[in-house]
Amino acid sequence: MEFLIHFHLMAAMAWIGGSIFMFVLGVSLRDKSKQKEVYPNIGPIFGYFEIVSLVILLVSGILMADDKGLIYALLEGDTSPLGTVFFNKMMLVAFVILFTIIHFVVAFKTNGKCRTKLQNFLSRSSSLMVLFLNLVVLHYAIILRSML
Q1: I need a labelling partner for 13 at 20 to 30 A (CA). Which of 22, 55, 71, 135 fits?
Q2: Closest CA to 144 of 14, 17, 8
């Protein structure tokens, strides 16, 4: 099972690195016409790439957690430092998934179309939350790995 950490780390690099890249792209492309040229073309490709990365993260994470007995600890409500760190990470991962779903629904529904103010708000705020939460999840992953 130790080989799974390699898949998990590569998927995490793609997932978090992709979030950072898209954030920088969004901040640096201020011209609306350039945004309309770039996002409809790279958005769907990037979205599918990120979905694959997220699936690899989830599958490898679940398998590693099960191998280390963390799933059982989570279900039993383990309040040890390890159990607490794992619970916190899983709660953050759940929010990352929620905000990712919100972002993807809006992004795919409105790709190449004019967005309403609400759709724009939901897309941008969920994307920003995914970026922020990814960094916090990474922090918990480092702590968790050092505890194991």
Answers
A1: 71
A2: 8
Average of pLDDT values for 50-78?
92
pLDDT, tens digit, 9 for 90 and up, residues 19-53? 898 888 877 877 777 777 777 778 788 888 989 99
At residue 115, φ and ψ (nearest 5 deg) are -95, 150
What's the one-letter identity of residue 98?
Answer: L
- Predicted confidence at residue 11, as pLDDT, reads 95
Helix axes 32-67, 4-28, angle to 10 degrees: 160
For helices 81-110 and 32-67, angle between their N-to-C axes, nearest 10 degrees: 150
Rounded Cα distance between 59 and 61, Å, is 5
Query: Rounded to whole angstroms, how far apart are CA atoms 120 and 12?
Result: 27
What's the rounded Cα separation, in Å, for the pair 131 and 46?
15
SS3 37: helix
Phi/psi zone of residue 113: left (φ > 0), alpha (ψ -120 to 50 degrees), beta? beta
Cα separation of 147 and 82, whole Å?
A: 7
pLDDT tens-digit map of 122-143? 988 998 999 999 999 999 999 9
Alpha-carbon distance of 141 to 132, in angstroms, equals 14
